[in-house]
Design brief:
There is one protein chain. This protein has 19 helices and 21 strands. By secondary structure, the protein is an alpha+beta fold. The strands form six sheets. Strands 14, 15, 16, 17, 18, 19 and 20 form a seven-stranded mixed beta sheet that branches. Strands 1-5-6-4-3-2 form a six-stranded mixed beta sheet. Strands 7-10 form a two-stranded antiparallel ribbon. Helix 4 (130-149) packs antiparallel against helix 6 and helix 4 runs antiparallel to helix 9. The model is unreliable at 1-13, 189-193, 330-345, 356-415 and 581-606 (pLDDT under 50). The protein binds adenosine-5'-triphosphate. Adenosine-5'-triphosphate (ATP) binds next to strand 2, strand 4 and strand 6. It comes from Escallonia rubra. Residues 30-312, 432-606 form the Protein kinase domain. This is Protein kinase domain-containing protein.
Amino acid sequence: MSDCDGSPSTSSSSSRRFSLADIQSATDNFSDELVIGQGGFGKVYKGSISDGESMTVAVKRLNPRSRQGAREFRTEIEMLSRFRYPYLVSLIGYCEEPDEMILVYEYMPRGNFADHLHRSGKNYSEPLPWLRRLRICIDAARGLDYLHTGTSIQPDRAIHRDVKSSNILLDHNWDAKISDFGLSKLGPEDQAYSHVSTEVKGTFGYLDPEYYLTRRLTRKSDVYAFGVVMLEALCGRSAVDFSGDEEQWGLAGWAQYCIGEGTVDEIIDPSVKEEIKKDCLMEFVQIAVECLRNIPRKRPTMAEIVVRLEFALALQEGKDSSKIAKPAKLDLALQEGEDSSDVVMPAKLTFTRNMKRFFLGTTLVNSDTKPTSKVQTNHSSISNSVMPDKDGAMSNNKDGVLAQELPSGGQTPTPSFKQFTFTELKSITENFSNEMKLSEGSHVGWIDEKTYNPLEFGVGMAVVVKKITPNEFQYPGLRQILDFLRECSHPNLVKLLGYCTESKYSEANNMFLVHEYMQKGSLDNHLFREGAEPLSWPIRLKIAIGAARGLAFLHTNTNTNTIQKQNMYSKFAAWDILLDKLSLFPNSIRRTSMQSFRTLECQSSM
Ligand SMILES: Nc1ncnc2c1ncn2[C@@H]1O[C@H](COP(=O)(O)OP(=O)(O)OP(=O)(O)O)[C@@H](O)[C@H]1O
């Protein structure tokens, strides 16, 4: 497991570097009147920066006496630059000068969840209704699920390590986001249940006892802490409270005792007690109890918690419980007596098949993404002169679609993707040979997993090089497409690795996308192909769950409007679901012949 406590670079492309003068001007020279919070790192100020127009921000200034500060400062920048998601607080920038370390975040006007639950702090006005508490828990669980699951472009996953109600911040609409990543740890993608031995860190009251005893940190430590947050939401008590009898000091222990004794009613926050529907309460308490299980393996995953909390919400909202399907256990393997953490969802959606649909016919949400009169609709009007040259630089032709939409200087708009040269693509696909052809416009090839450099047949990672015709990409333009694809980063979406726009070396102004190769082809092959080995029911269920997750992500998290979100696919079908080699066929041969690749891919949607 890699450790983010090293010294990651603070020069993040996605965060802005501020001067001390900028920050002083934003906070009225760190005026005490603008202090909105105080944590272990230092004071937090409300400020205002201008970036064309003025924006309210939260400014966290390291207290020079904080011993952990420098390390946490770098971890926070590293983490928040990698993981951007609606349920994680956004880092806007930072300031690093000889005696100053300052972080600048989006401002969350309703402060933290803890202050509302425990009725303290400036932001507290009146008790939060139960529905709001439930929705906040769901948002926070989504943020943690994303952190645990990783992104497909950024292969790292992470453990937050300091989940608590004061690290759940609330925006104007009461939407919740996870904050404070200073203690987080990065972990590799391929170890679902990885652990690392660390110096024990976190906050008392939320500390996973197993981690405390063994120093083995896993994602399930976050799950434990999240269970404590759920109990805080239910009981309106702090995780640690020394004001009562000794047995009540720690909320986790006390609440579990009461639940076990059947006296949970006595510890529910009186201000919400009458609001909570019985079946919702039962589901909620059951999830919390499972989060607090002694054996980390037996705790649910954050993904499962999200689904079950959504079910609890549906019950609370009065949906007829007989008509709501109780969520199937995501960890099917648990039903089969295996470790739920090792369950791999083998299904991923392909979403580049008909990209034009994602953009055409509707207006994009961002004002700067709206089609302009300069956008040409006749693809023959895109000439070589507006495409990047061999080094990716753009011409100055201001009338061209791409010239107008790519940043000046031809900087790669999506640094997470590799910009392949056409020569590299030729090398990867053995000169686009028939031997390497998967389907019309798609070739398979091999690259180095780390550098993405071409490798010889069968060595390294298999990828698909897919041709995109001008008809597909001319509207809304390359930059839009790449921005969109960068957003489409989810474990259940086929992972995009890079692209190539060297049109003058390719025929007909095509561009190319390079994405991971899903070795087992599309689902229809396995369901309908004559002679295909039947898929077992648990596998079908896993595939359905994986595909549903991919769709849910496309529907809720991409920067498109509602109509687009609901119409990502005109006809979603089995060939949009691709299967990889993981877990589906555990004994499959690692180096499969091209013939069998092609047999499986013959009806693939790529
Ligand atoms: N982006 C933000 N918008 C609004 N308020 C914020 C923001 N970030 C932090 N705060 C406020 O400042 C408080 C202190 O934040 P900080 O993350 O430094 O500490 P903490 O998590 O409460 O404690 P510790 O750092 O010791 O774990 C938060 O609880 C919150 O009330």
